Amino acid sequence: MTRATTMYQLVLRARTRAMQTGFRVFDTATRLRAIEARQFADDVDAVASALLRQGVRRGEKVAIVAATGYRWVVCDFAITSLGAVTVGVYPSTPAGELGELLSYADCVLALVDDHAQTLKVEACRSVTPMLRQVVQLHGRIFGAALGWDDFLGAGRQTIGEDLGAARAAVSAEDAAAIVFTSGTSGQPKGAVLTHRALLAAAYSAALSVDTHPGDEALLFLPLAHVFARLCVYFSLLTGTVTTFARSPETLMEDFATARPHWFVSVPRLFEKFHQAASERLDRAHGFERRLLQWAHDVGLRMSDTLVARRRPSLRLRLEHGLAGRFVYRRMRRRFGGRLRFAISGSAPLDPEVGRFLHAFDVLVLEGIGMTENAAFSHVNRRDHFRFGWVGTPGPGVEQRIAVDGELLLRSPSLMREYYKLPVETRQALDEDGWLHTGDVGEIDEQGYLRIVDRKKDLLVTSGGKNVAPAPIERRLVAHPYIRQAVVVGDRRNYLTALIVPLSAEAADRPADLVSSGMRRADDREQLELRIAEQVRLVNQELPPYRQIKRFRLVTEFTEENGLLTHTAKQRRRAIEERFAAEIEAMYAEPRSGEPRGKPEGAAALLAGSRIAELRT
Length: 616
Description:
The protein is built from 19 helices and 28 strands. By secondary structure, the protein is of the alpha/beta class. The two termini are 50 Å apart.
C-alpha cells in the first residue's frame, strides 16, 4: 500500500479508480445513488476552487456545522487540500457555545447545513470577528449567507494554476483538523491533528480491520468528530464504499436498503439490539421459545470456542449451520443481511452485550481511540477477539502502563497540540512523546488492552458522547434551592444528577425550608417541583445529550463524611459509591404504563419514588 503524505493524495488515489463507486447517498427512502470516485475528486476540486475564491489560505480555519453527509466529506477534503484546517462542530451546538468555538478556533469561514444553522452563526457574530463569510450547504437562503450554487459558481473563476500552487505548498506536518474534545473544566480544547497524524491512523486501521475492495459500509456517526472521518479515510484507502445514512431516526430502514458488509457505531445501538432480542426471548412461548433458546445456547458455545481460538467440532458446526438457517439470519436481516462484523467505539461496550449478539451470529469488535490520537489505537480482529477487551494495538502504536496504572500511548497519529493551550498540551504529551490518556489500563502477555477505570472525570455516555460534568453542575448550583450537584452518566444512555438542596439535610428535614417561604405542608414535594423547574431551565441551554433526565435529592457532601476533599472538591467516585442505590434507581425500569427506556416521555415527577423525572 503506497503511503500518502497529505489528505489530498487520497483524493488523487480515488481519481485513479475513476468509474468505481466511492460513495452512495439516498435519493429516496429505498433508492441509493452511486457517486463514482472520479466524480468525488471533481467535486473536491470544485469546492477547493470556491474556497480559494473566498480567500481561504494555508493555515486558516474553516468550520463545518452540518450533519453527516456527502457534502461534509467533500468540504473536508477541499479544505485540507489547500493546507487550511477543518473545524468540525456538532450541528446541535447551541448558538452561544457555537460562537465560543468559532472564536477560539479563529474560523474565517463557516460552512453550515441550512438556514437554522445560519441563524445561529449570525447570532454570535459579535464574538467571531475573524469570520468573513457563511456558506449554506442546503435550503433557501435568507440574509447574508452565500448559497451553495453561488459559492461554487464563484469558484469557477479560480485559475487552475493558483489551485495547483496552493496544493503544492501543503506538507505532511501541516495541521489538517482541529477536533474539539471535552475537558472536565468545560473549556473548549481543540486537538490539532496533522495530515501525517490522520493518515497514520487510517493506515494503521486499514492494516488491522479485515475488509475487501468493494465492501460497503453504512456511516451514521457525526463527522464533527474524528471517529467518523477516520472511517471515510479508511474506506478511501481500502477501496470500500461509504453509504451515508439519512438520519439516526431512519437508521433501521437505511440498514435494509444499504445492506452494509460492516459499520461502526457507539455502544448504544448494540445495547438497543440486545434489549430487543432479550425481550423477544422472554416473550416467546412453546416451540418458538425452545428454538430461540437452543439457537442461543449453540451460539454461546460457538462464540466461546472462537474466542478460545479452538476449532469447533463437526457437531457444533452442523448445529450452528442449522441455527443460522432458522434463527440467526433473521437477526442479520435487521442489518441488511450481508453483515460480516461491526466495530464499537467511543465508549465501553458491556461484554455481555457483545457475547449475546455474537451468540446470534452478529460479531461486534470493540476498539478504542481518542481525539488526541485521531480516533485509533486498538481494535479486536475478526480472527482473534475478546469481549470486554479493546484488542491489540494497530501497527505503529506503542503502549505501556505507567507506575500509577495510567495507559500511555505513542504513535505517529498523536495530535500536535491542544490549540492555544500550551499547559494542557504539556500535561497530555510528555517529553518522550507519550500521550497520557487519563485511562487506567491493563495489558496482558499477548498485548490485549482492557480499560479498567478512568482517571479523569469526563463522562462518556453509551451513545459515545463526551460530557464534561463540571459546567452542568455549575449551572445547577447557580440556581436557588440547589446547594451541590453531581452529574452521573458514564457508560449510561442518559444523564442524571444527585442534588443537595438548600442546607445539609434539607431533603429529609422539611423544617429547614421554612426560611425560604415555603409552607411546612408538602415542603418536600414543593422543593422537588421547584428544583425540577430549575433543572428544566438548565436543560434549555444544553444540547439533548447533555441534558439531565432524572435527579434525586440527597444529603450534603462534606469533608467529614468523606465526600469532599480538604480543598472542598467533590470526591466523585466516593459520592457515586455512597449513593449507588439512588443512582441505580434513576436507571431502573420505568413504572407500568411508562415508555420503556424513554424517560423523557414520562411524568414530570414519579410520585412516591423520590426520583424526579423531567420532560424535555
